[in-house]
Amino acid sequence: MNLEKLTGHAAMFGANSMWGIMSPVSKMVMAGGAVTPMVMTDCRVLGAAVLFWTLSLFLKRDPVSWKDLLLLLLASQFAIVFNQGSFIFGVSLTSPSTLPSSQPACRS
């Protein structure tokens, strides 16, 4: 297997691992009551913003019009609020016994 394919497989494995660990870790963090769903969502959004901002310092910039930037800003906020907010709020409503049953089974 060449290096490009190995890098792609490693990236897919890492992304899937993080996705699979996300629900149980979120539930454990919120189970104690010290972190509310809103605080958890804020931490995830701010962490991603810092990560992408740092990454953007090392990448070549493409010219994007102000109109498109505004549209991207509105669309990203809409997606963050509904996707992340709904996910974290839903996880906060589950119990540790029902959480694994809501995860899809991985079959080959």
UniProtKB/TrEMBL annotation:
<feature type="transmembrane region" description="Helical">
    <location>
        <begin position="38"/>
        <end position="59"/>
    </location>
</feature>
<feature type="domain" description="EamA">
    <location>
        <begin position="7"/>
        <end position="98"/>
    </location>
</feature>
<feature type="transmembrane region" description="Helical">
    <location>
        <begin position="71"/>
        <end position="93"/>
    </location>
</feature>
<dbReference type="Pfam" id="PF00892">
    <property type="entry name" value="EamA"/>
</dbReference>
<keyword id="KW-0472">Membrane</keyword>
<keyword id="KW-1133">Transmembrane helix</keyword>
<dbReference type="GO" id="GO:0016020">
    <property type="term" value="C:membrane"/>
</dbReference>
<keyword id="KW-0812">Transmembrane</keyword>
<protein>
    <submittedName>
        <fullName>EamA family transporter</fullName>
    </submittedName>
</protein>
<dbReference type="InterPro" id="IPR000620">
    <property type="entry name" value="EamA_dom"/>
</dbReference>
